């Protein structure tokens, strides 16, 4: 869901950069350095998922997996996603340097929200059904909130001029809702069986 460079006005780009810097500072401060390998794992998954994409209007359609990453990383998704997005810009020219802050907020803020919505449920309930439901919900909401935030950015920046693009953005991501939900549910069930300590999530 990369927004393209050269579309948004400077005030939107500056606002996105400011929020991204705030998120990065919180993420670095709250990062559990004993879980750096896990952070790197989710950053890599996010990077790979984003490289397989289809351009749609001024955005692109691809797997996001931000809900799943948010469950385990919390605020650490900001530095993790920032590295992945930066590499995507450098290696594949996805998005752009000027829109990096906006794209980071669009991807990472939903992940942080999902972390606080579901982390206690995973801590207190260990059944497979709970993991499946939480994983599917995290995947669904991760994509949904990212689409919502991207739509709000476009509405703030261009108003009614971007109305058709916002509708196209949401409709084009409908298959991603399903795929992200399924992958997230499967991964959380597997990780819960292999590494149950990971479900003792931190803020």
TrEMBL record:
Coiled-coil positions: none
Pfam family, one: CbiM
Membrane-protein topology: Multi-pass membrane protein
GO biological process: transition metal ion transport
Species assigned in the record: Pasteurella bettyae CCUG 2042
UniProt name for this protein: Cobalt uptake substrate-specific transmembrane region
Membrane-spanning parts: 12-28, 40-65, 72-91, 97-116, 128-154, 166-192
CC annotations in GO: plasma membrane
UniProt-annotated location(s): Cell membrane
InterPro entries (UniProt xref): CbiM/NikMN
Gene3D superfamilies in alphabetical order: 1.10.1760.20
UniProt entry keywords in alphabetical sequence: Cell membrane, Membrane, Transmembrane, Transmembrane helix, Transport
């Amino acid at each position: 869901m990369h927004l393209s460079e050269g579309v948004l006005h400077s005030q939107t780009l500056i606002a996105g950069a400011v929020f991204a810097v705030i998120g990065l500072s919180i993420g670095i401060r709250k990062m559990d350095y004993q879980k750096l390998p896990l952070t790197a794992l989710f950053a890599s998954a996010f990077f790979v998922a984003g490289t397989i994409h289809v351009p749609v209007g001024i955005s692109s359609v691809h797997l996001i997996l931000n809900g799943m990453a948010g469950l385990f990383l919390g605020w650490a998704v900001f530095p993790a996603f920032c590295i992945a997005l930066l590499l995507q810009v450098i290696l594949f020219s996805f998005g752009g340097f000027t829109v990096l802050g906006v794209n980071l907020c669009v991807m990472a803020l939903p992940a942080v929200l999902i972390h606080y919505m579901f982390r206690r449920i995973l801590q207190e309930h260990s059944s497979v059904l709970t993991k499946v439901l939480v994983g599917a919900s995290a995947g669904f909401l991760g994509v949904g909130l990212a689409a919502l935030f991207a739509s709000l950015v476009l509405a703030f920046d261009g108003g009614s001029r971007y109305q058709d693009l916002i509708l196209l953005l949401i409709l084009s991501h409908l298959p991603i809702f399903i795929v992200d939900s399924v992958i997230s549910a499967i991964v959380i069930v597997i990780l819960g069986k292999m590494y149950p300590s990971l479900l003792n999530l931190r803020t």
